[in-house]
Write a structure and sequence with these properties.
This protein has 508 residues and is mainly beta. The chain has a domain of 102 residues. It has two helices and 36 strands. Strand 23 and strand 24 form a beta hairpin. The radius of gyration is 24 Å and the shape is globular. The two termini are 33 Å apart.
Length: 508
């Protein structure tokens, strides 16, 4: 009897471990994909996983089941030939494709509603147009959405007059009905001014920053916060108190739970100085004032843990802010990753790019442009693609900050990644399961590619799960372009024999 009990315990343990193991399902490479095909992971719609692909004038949707078997491939017929950008807002049972293109002297932005099988549900809806007298080769509109996806915003920036920019906005509801259009003048008092970090809250109110850098484009020395109510034609401007700090890598995040705007940035106490810590401002929207702010200096122990190959003083000079996770209690968690490059033996750190932020990019010519480009973490170093020998992406730091702007805890996920002439496979995929934040990334051990899962709990405890053991040889993950589609499932693009495919990664 005792032996039977022991046997059943062993069997039960076996099944519990098996049931809790990570799972990976791969799609087959599509041999019909042309070389250079581009893609976006839309997400889970009607139970299917939908991916958009396009190459030049060909646009289609790939529909996959839960095991990444392709169910259907749907080509978009009667579609404009010269679509310059497509954005997607995904809901449980449908998604919107917001696309823009030029026809003669008119630039159009339209939306189309699709289901999880790639079928068109409604005819295209015209959202806005722009009269231009040149042939554009890039997008004019940027599309953002509120956290609850009940409101969408299109905006464009006319910077033909370098002293007075105009931010034109189109606020749209969940059904693509236009709520309000506005044209906001923004004085640009200095040549070093730039606009960045546009965020839409659940009320439809827009927040963005106007910042100014030094003449050498080394750091941010002044920042103003614009808040434009959704149905207003004007905005309120607030000059933020930076306490004579030099900011670097500035971000804005909406806190819809508490109706706050969070402004955060690394800071240095001296011009072109080493990063000393994290500066945060919490702005109360209802009271229309700063709720609190703090310059949180990093301890020597934290620096020692996060320095990698750097010295203690320069430990955070390579870090770029990545994710900001808002908590209901008004606190938040910030992640940052160490990134740098070397070119012909020359090391390039955060001072190689204007204002030290990967989000800022110069506006397009002929008066219209957008402050956002397709994200690449190494854009922050300028044109490092030329003659770059090696890209690096190392440790991840996690910082938890309370609602009154006090540093609660910190931790570091250790990793070392590098690649020559290509940064695609570097970085990490983040999966927020509610109880933990998981960081998935590849690494090399004994000439074998490993896929690791490190996680941090709500109280800052770091856990390392067993490495994924059912990896197929030849599949190279592209973790930065992943998309979380449910509580414990993420879709991660892969390359296999230079063909794009997708992995469905399920955490226990």
């Amino acid at each position: 009897m005792a032996k039977q009990i022991i046997l059943w315990c062993v069997i039960g343990l076996f099944f519990s471990v098996s049931a809790s193991a990570q799972k990976i399902f791969y799609s087959d490479p599509d041999k019909e994909d042309p070389r250079g095909v581009e893609y976006q992971i839309i997400g889970k719609v009607n139970g299917n996983i939908v991916v958009y692909k396009h190459n030049r004038d060909v646009h289609f949707f790939c529909i996959y089941d839960a095991e990444m078997k392709m169910i259907n491939k749907v080509k978009l017929d009667n579609f404009p030939a010269n679509v310059l950008r497509a954005d997607f807002i995904q809901y449980p049972d449908f998604f919107y494709m917001i696309y823009q293109y030029q026809q003669n002297d008119v630039f159009y932005c339209k939306g189309i509603k699709m289901d999880g099988n790639g079928n068109k549900l409604l005819d295209p809806v015209e959202l806005d147009t722009t009269q231009i007298h040149y042939r554009s080769n890039s997008k004019i509109y940027t599309v953002i959405n509120s956290e609850d996806k009940q409101k969408l915003l299109l905006f464009k920036i006319n910077n033909k007059n370098e002293r007075l920019n105009y931010v034109s906005t189109v606020l749209v509801d969940k059904y693509l009905n236009i709520i309000h259009k506005s044209r906001l003048p923004v004085p640009m008092t200095d040549k070093q001014n730039f606009l960045t970090e546009f965020e839409l809250d659940n009320d439809g109110d827009l927040a963005f920053l106007k910042a100014a850098g030094t003449n050498q484009n080394e750091s941010i020395i002044s920042v103003g916060l614009y808040i434009k109510p959704g149905q207003s034609d004007s905005a309120v401007y607030h000059n933020l108190n930076l306490r004579n700090l030099d900011l670097n890598d500035i971000r804005v995040k909406v806190d819809n739970y508490n109706k706050h705007f969070l402004i955060s940035s690394f800071y240095a106490r001296q011009k072109r100085g080493n990063i000393d810590g994290l500066y945060v401002i919490i702005w109360d929207k209802d009271a229309d004032k700063e709720l609190n702010s703090a310059a949180m200096s990093f301890t020597e122990e934290f620096r020692l843990d996060a320095k990698g190959e750097s010295t203690i003083k320069t430990a955070f000079n390579n870090y770029a802010l990545k994710n900001i996770i808002i908590r209901q209690d008004g606190g938040f968690i910030i992640t940052a990753e160490s990134e740098y490059t070397s070119t012909n033996g020359n090391y390039m750190n955060r001072y190689g790019y204007p204002y030290g932020t990967s989000y800022y990019s110069p506006y397009g010519g002929f008066g219209y442009g957008s402050p956002y480009s397709i994200y690449s973490p190494f854009n922050r170093y300028g044109n490092t693609y030329v003659n770059t020998n090696r890209y690096y992406a190392d440790d991840i730091v996690i910082l938890s900050v309370s609602a009154d702007s006090k540093l609660e805890w910190t931790n570091v996920v250790k990793k070392t990644q590098y690649d020559d002439m290509n940064d695609q496979m570097l970085g990490y995929a983040m999966v927020n399961t509610g109880d933990q934040i998981h960081f998935l990334f590849t690494s090399q051990e004994k000439r074998q590619s490993m896929f690791s899962d490190h996680s941090v709990t709500a109280d800052g405890q770091l856990n390392q799960s067993p490495t994924f053991h059912n990896l197929d040889k030849g599949y190279q993950f592209i973790p930065r372009q992943s998309k979380q589609i449910s509580a414990r499932v993420s879709i991660i693009p892969c390359l296999v024999r230079n063909n794009i495919c997708f992995a469905r990664v399920e955490l226990p």
